[in-house]
Write a structure and sequence with these properties.
Blueprint lengths: L9 H16 L9 H10 L4 H13 L5 H6 L19 E8 L5 H14 L4 E5 L3 E6 L4 E9 L2 E9 L1 H30 L6 H45 L21
Helix pairs in contact: 2-3, 5-7, 6-7
Length: about 260
């Protein structure tokens, strides 16, 4: 019952305003409009009522998209760049994503073919009914694993960049130190006549080499990061394609429990 308009004291006014603010942020039921109301609004806009009924009938026959179907084609977001410390880029890259689907023989074969394409060459793999592990036949420490887990297939790509970092920093800085001494000594002694400048020039030389090597390492890791992102995006598509319903009578090879390590 409404209170007579005799005014409100300070406490009552505060309670009323507080409750009004709570009601303002609460979700409200979406208003429903009848077909007749739509027809009347359409008629006012010069639209034939028959067209309104036709549009309503078409809308009623449409089904909302399946959540699973949407998940099958979802593409994982690349992980945020990790801090690389003094190297400038991380020494390990890891991608993980779960896709609804199955890991049958057809999917495994398609995955191996896709991996050879994304990593530019053949590789070795071990596979059974529930898992596939693939590694390229090169000097890179890349491991790609797929595991059957509910609700689908868990993808994981991991690469360790320690070898790349060691080769670059060790090779360039180690070789550059000798080159630096070869030009710093004659410049400091003969040209500048300042032997005391030798350690200063050497430190500056090595710092310049370090920044140069760091830039090369960061660029290389970024390229590998893009390659992994493209690979996992392609694998998501392969598994999604394998999860689509097959024609009646199609052969299923999912009963095979193991694969030999092969190309």
């Amino acid at each position: 019952m409404d209170k007579p308009d005799t005014g409100y004291d300070e406490d009552e006014a505060s309670l009323i305003l507080k409750r009004a603010a709570e009601l303002a942020v609460q979700p409200h039921a979406q208003a429903r409009t009848s077909l007749g109301e739509l027809e009347e609004a359409a008629a006012g806009a010069g639209i034939d009522k028959a067209l309104v009924r036709q549009a309503a009938a078409e809308l009623a026959t449409q089904s909302p998209p399946s959540p699973d179907a949407t998940a099958l084609v979802s593409v994982p977001e690349p992980p945020a760049p990790e801090a690389g410390g003094w190297l400038g880029a991380p020494t390990q890259l890891t991608y993980e994503h779960t896709v609804p689907g199955r890991l049958d023989d057809d999917t495994r074969n398609a995955v191996v073919s896709a991996l050879q394409r994304y990593y530019n060459g053949p590789g070795t793999f071990q596979s059974n009914k529930r898992e596939l592990v693939w590694q390229p036949r090169n000097q890179r420490s890349v491991t790609v694993s797929l595991n059957r887990r509910r609700p689908g297939v868990a993808l994981r790509i991991n690469e360790r960049n320690n070898g790349l970092a060691g080769g670059l920093f060790g090779g360039i800085l180690g070789g550059g130190a000798g080159v630096g001494i070869a030009w710093i000594l004659p410049v400091a002694i003969a040209a500048l006549e300042a032997p005391a400048a030798i350690p200063v020039l050497f430190v500056l030389w090595m710092a310049a080499l370090w920044y140069f090597t760091r830039a090369i390492f960061v660029t290389a890791v970024r390229a590998r990061r893009r390659q992994h992102a493209e690979a996992i995006e392609g694998l998501v598509a392969v598994i999604a394609d394998g999860a689509r319903p097959r024609a009646h009578g199609a052969d299923s090879n999912d009963s095979n429990d193991s694969y030999d390590s092969a190309d």
